[in-house]
Specification:
Layout (H helix, E strand, L loop, with lengths): L2 H17 L4 H12 L9 H18 L1 H13 L4 H22 L1 H5 L6 H20 L9 H13 L7 H11 L4 H29 L9 H27 L4 H21 L2
Length: 270
């Protein structure tokens, strides 16, 4: 397959699935298996980093006003609404940051062609979405305790097949948080983690220049553009769907993809 077509497909997959509750990591794993690629090897780390950077930038563009408020809250050194919200975002990041640092090798063992595992986790994601869709809407905001629990959900969603947005938004809604606030909090809490992961990957690549030997900058640009544009579309769409309680559509999609992945794995290994 052409590097450009592959980059386009992977960019589209990353852009749509990063925000829609269907697991971007799970879909990238299934895409790897389908096309015979292996994005999670060291030599493709630059492409992975570029795709995540593209979706991070799309989040910044959409939530630029919210992010500006967070930064103002952090540097005003006053106990106001912006500061409180900023601290909740920081608190929610802690579980995923700890898991990413302390259990990196264990997490990596779940990647690399684990189609059966991905399919099973997609079923879990589908169940979470169904439960959240049936929960009553409220006008409650995210509290500190809820922020920590949502952060634990985000940490669990590191596993391929568990949707990060699906897990965090579902957890928020099941905890009684207003749907609009739940979506906003879910997308904002991941931005610092994405940039932190990117910094870690860039540091690794500078120490291991062999990981970028086969770099195709045109293909990287194609992947970035595809992920950025589809990320903008998917993020706005997701916010609208959460408000309208339409998560069940994605639940059925996760069930379909999960059952298909499990069936194909069992068929090929019997």
């Amino acid at each position: 397959m052409s590097d450009y077509i592959e980059a386009l497909i992977l960019g589209l997959v990353q852009g749509f699935t990063e925000f829609l509750p269907v697991s971007s990591s799970g879909h990238l794993e299934l895409t790897n298996a389908l096309f015979g690629t292996n994005l999670d090897t060291d030599k493709s780390m630059l492409m992975v980093t570029v795709l995540h950077f593209a979706t991070a930038i799309s989040t910044v563009v959409i939530f630029r006003k919210d992010l500006a408020e967070i930064f103002r809250g952090l540097f005003q050194f006053k106990w106001n609404e912006q500061t409180i919200f900023s601290l909740k975002i920081i608190l929610s990041m802690i579980p995923a940051a700890l898991v990413g640092v302390l259990l990196e090798d264990e997490i990596n063992s779940f990647f690399g062609g684990q189609v059966l595992f991905v399919g099973s986790m997609l079923l879990v994601t589908g169940l979470l979405l169904l439960l959240a869709d049936r929960a009553k809407n409220t006008d409650k905001t995210v509290g500190f305790g809820q922020a920590l629990i949502i952060g634990v959900s985000q940490a669990i969603a590191i596993l391929p097949g568990i949707s990060r947005s699906g897990a965090t938004i579902s957890t928020s809604v099941l905890l009684g948080v207003d749907r609009d606030r739940a979506a906003r909090f879910s997308f904002l809490m991941v931005v610092p983690l994405i940039f932190g992961k990117m910094a870690k990957d860039i540091l690794f690549m500078t120490k291991h220049p062999e990981t970028t030997i086969d770099t195709n900058f045109v293909a990287l640009s194609v992947g970035f553009a595809a992920a950025f544009i589809t990320g903008l579309i998917a993020c706005k769409w997701m916010i609208s769907l959460v408000k309208k309680a339409k998560l069940s559509y994605f639940a059925f999609y996760c069930f379909l993809v999960g059952i298909t992945a499990i069936s194909i794995h069992l068929f090929l290994n019997t």
